[in-house]
Each structure stands twice: as structure tokens, then as C-alpha cells.
């Protein structure tokens, strides 16, 4: 697995975006950020981050729709994506599990374990993908 150095956060809530950014930067990651899916998709195409962390509930294009767009784009399909969600209903969790995302973290996030949780999902996803090939 390529080392994760650059993380793109797609989050419309400025408080949550800044919190996630501070946590990742505190662990030495470079962080790119977008406040909506359209901007996030454009940044992903241009910058090719090592990991994308995206909110499920975004304006105009949802996180699930954004994931579909990213996974069907040859420039971004290989980038692992992790959802962060406040809507942890059973139905929503099933949608997230059946998506192409590596995993999900529910809000409110635990600031002590968030970065480790996200990176672990990305690593597990990579191992599972390699074993499937």
C-alpha cells in the first residue's frame, strides 16, 4: 500500500472540517479540503490525494453520489474513501456498507481515535483488495 501522506476532507460544516483537518495535521498528514462534493471531486482529480474522508450529507451532491462519481472516474477510482456520518440509522449504515467506501466513522467523532480509525479502514481495504485480486 502506498503510504498515506495527503488526505482530502470533503465536509460542508466548517467546524467539523477544521476539527478533522487539525487532527490529521497533528499526526503529520497534509490536508486538502473542500466544502462540497463538486469542489472535492475537482480537487481529487487535480491533486490525487492518498485518501478521501467525506461527509455523507453534503449540499447538492450527497457523499454517496460523490463516491459513485469518484469510483467511475479513471483519475480517482483507486483512491480509498471513508465516510463520516451523523446519520447512523440502520438503513444508512447498510447503504454505507454496500458502497465502495473503505468504511465509515460516526459523528460525533472521538478525537483520540479518529485518525487511527480512518487509517486502519484504509489499510484493511487495501489488504482485502489485494487478496481479492
Question: What is the highest CATH level, the class?
Answer: Alpha Beta
Sheet bearing the most strands, described? 5 strands, parallel
CATH superfamily: Response regulator
Strand order of the largest sheet: 2-1-3-4-5
Q: Count all strands and give the number.
A: 5
Radius of gyration over all CA atoms, rounded = 13 Å
Q: Spans of 5+ residues with little confidence (pLDDT < 50)?
A: 127-133
Write the layout of secondary structure elements.
Blueprint: E1 6-10, H1 14-26, E2 30-34, H2 37-47, E3 51-55, H3 63-71, E4 81-85, H4 90-97, E5 103-106, H5 114-132
Parallel strand pairs: 1-2, 1-3, 3-4, 4-5
Helix pairs in contact: 2-3
Could you provide a short overview of the structure?
With 133 residues, this protein is an alpha/beta fold.
Describe this structure as you would to a colleague.
The protein has a 5-stranded parallel β-sheet, with helices on both faces. With 133 residues, it is α/β, with parallel strands linked by helices. The chain has helices at residues 14-26, 37-47, 63-71, 90-97, 114-132, and strands spanning 6-10, 30-34, 51-55, 81-85, 103-106. It has a single domain, classed as Rossmann fold, CATH 3.40.50.2300. Helix 2 packs parallel to helix 3 (63-71). Helix 1 (14-26) links the parallel strand 1 and strand 2 (30-34). It has 5 helices and 5 strands. It is globular. Mean pLDDT is 90; it is low at 127-133.
